[in-house]
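Changelog note: in this version the structure field was regenerated for every chain. One regenerated record is shown below for reference.
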Amino acid sequence: MSSTPLNLTPCCEQCDTPRTYDQFIANHTTSKPLGLFEAHDLCAICQLPYGSENLTFEMLDMPLEITNILGCRHVFGSACVKQMSWDNIDGRHQCCPLCRTEWWLEPDPLNCDITDAIKHRRSENIARDFQTDYGTARHLLYNEPEYADSYVPFGLEELWSKLNLTHMIGSALATEAIQKRIQKLQEGRIISIAEIAYHPKKVLEGNLMVDPFTFNNYHLPINSMKHAILGTLGSMRGSRLWQMYIDVVPQMNGVRDESCLVAIEDEWMKMFPND
């Protein structure tokens, strides 16, 4: 998506044009009492009742109403709105999931003119999401001299690879063919309690849903699903499948269709027949 604002109409006296996430939360949202909602009233983002625990932020997903923005008065869980800010790291618009009204514009993390507070928040997000240290994330994003000695070179290379792979996964998930495939996988499924509790950025020990043989998280939003798939590829079986893909594609003359997947499956059965 473009980093050019969708709407350059001035917002309000308190906000810039376009508004930032912090301005959006401060000036255009209102917390609603939990007592106004029934158990069957669900957040449209996570599909859970308001007041449910968000494991990523270890906070309750309390109802948050959008206010003073023309065309949008929807209510979402506060933790889910916060998650949208954390997921969106590449300088683009964030819009209402229901009506597509523009909420805020995330600053480009590579833009050195942004404030130090935003740089700090983005670097913390990257460090947390990709399990690295703050100095490595900050140096990769902004290449600031003061962080040049605070990272391990191998860690920088590994983080860059993960970010690049995550971008590739996100691009693939956004294609029409993959979207149709995901919709088919979603049809008729009953989401289990374990799947509802699953958070791709906070994988608990023993959570088998990072295994490609049991991956079933097709109910997740695209931004969350790409992190779940990244975790899947990082598992032992996922790493094996990824390496087999790298080995098999040249043998298929670069063909990347269903026959390629069949070849990978045949190779897997030869090497790991009891797995």
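Spot check on this record: Residues 116-168 form one domain. Residues 58 and 79 are 9 Å apart (CA to CA).
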